[in-house]
Amino acid sequence: MTLNTAEKQKLIESHQVHATDTGSVEVQVAMLSERISKLSDHLQGNIHDYASRQGLLKMIGKRKRLLSYIKGKNSQNYQDLVKKIGIRG
Fold first, then answer.
1. Is 89's pLDDT higher than 80?
2. Which pLDDT value is given to residue 18?
């Protein structure tokens, strides 16, 4: 359910804005999306894991807030990020 160092590094490299970027909103959204997908897979098999379900809902809320922040600042970056990550069908 957590991301190992290699997975984090790959996500950072694919979504960073500049060479030393590790914490921009785009990177945070990408990491949250990956964690959300892993946790969703876990909850498919463990339907009574209510603590993980609550954590999943918190992560979804945080990702939603970060996406609305990006949308307010630059809607083109928002559209590019949503398409790159593959969310919002």
1. no
2. 87
